[in-house]
């Protein structure tokens, strides 16, 4: 909890406006997007033979309990209580109108026996597994076509025990794409709150083709060298609100996506209205990111009050040729970052392709990106913005950005780098590239400062 004490301490410092100092402003929250439901009907995993000794398999207990919720539908839905203890299990599906409630000290642990992980079809917007051709392993906790689902409790843990999967990735012995820790597909009215996610095999939380999703008060942990353990990846989803969470993983903390090249273009499902606020964390990759899978388009993203420590890139918008898709109206504001390789990166040449059938003429469009109120300490390089020559990035607006170099003295290593970009900059230090015009009277920035 020292990071929390540390944040409070910083609130009294000059950089307070960049931090999560709730006392300084009215605290805005995600509430209202999804109604919180109280369940009158409650069952315990123990009623279905659950054994929390860390070694007994609880697959039957979870499946039986959820079967009971699905088939003996109770008015107002049912809460499934997981008492303290370690419940080892294979993956399982949730159902609608349920709350999965983890008591303090409850741990739901994924089996490390990879033979017992079922395969499911690739996502239509990806055309294949993200890592390997063909199907993909179903997420540890999975929901398809659901509504009114809550995962909450007293900060119990969902532990993916992902090291076996990371090793298969390292040894190149993976046959199919690794499983996410939690995936909701085609679902709506979902709340995930007050849970600890640990050691996901692959991405931690993946809402795809979903709407009205609230994700709050989470702790998401995986080692910095664990491959592709993204924190939260809203994908072709709308009205997703993420707040008040601590994320420290081996890949992007939050990454907004919308499908991959020709498959994502054909599926055509954008991510719209995504809010990310009061997120703190660290990772060797990106803090707040968009992409690189952006083929369905990404619109109306607001990220605010973000604190990043020991990062690769602080704010990262990434796409590529072949992606197509429009990325627009992205706002990132009130960011504190410290010990970061690169502060801000916007690039049109990031990420791989699903196969050689991608259309090299499907160029992404990036416009109306506002990044403001950023304070950086020990940042090796302030930023780079590289559009595409046949699709320059427009309306890239930077304001009130102060980025300070590393502790080593001497001339600043690298200044901003830009190409194929237009927009504006006001009160940015170090001063960004000449491509960003220096006044706000030019009209280059369509969004007012
Ligand atoms: C879980 O859901 C997946 C995808 O919807 C389905 O293929 C699978 O059969 C389900 N598994 C169980 C045990 O119900
Ligand atoms: C759970 O953790 C969150 C995030 O750290 C915290 O805000 C919340 O107070 C904790 N809740 C409980 C019941 O301990
Ligand atoms: C831009 O996105 C914000 C949310 O970040 C939204 O409130 C606003 O209406 C959007 N503007 C346009 C022009 O769509």
TrEMBL record:
Keyword Hydrolase on entry: yes
Cell membrane is among the record's keywords: no
Protein name: Pectate lyase superfamily protein domain-containing protein
Signal peptide interval: 1-25
InterPro entries named in the record: GH28_Enzymes, Glyco_hydro_28, PbH1, Pectin_lyas_fold, Pectin_lyase_fold/virulence
A Pfam cross-reference name: Glyco_hydro_28
Source domain of life: Eukaryota
Single GO term (MF): polygalacturonase activity
Family: Belongs to the glycosyl hydrolase 28 family.
Keywords of this entry: Glycosidase, Hydrolase, Signal
Coiled-coil spans in chain: none
Biological process terms in GO annotation: carbohydrate metabolic process
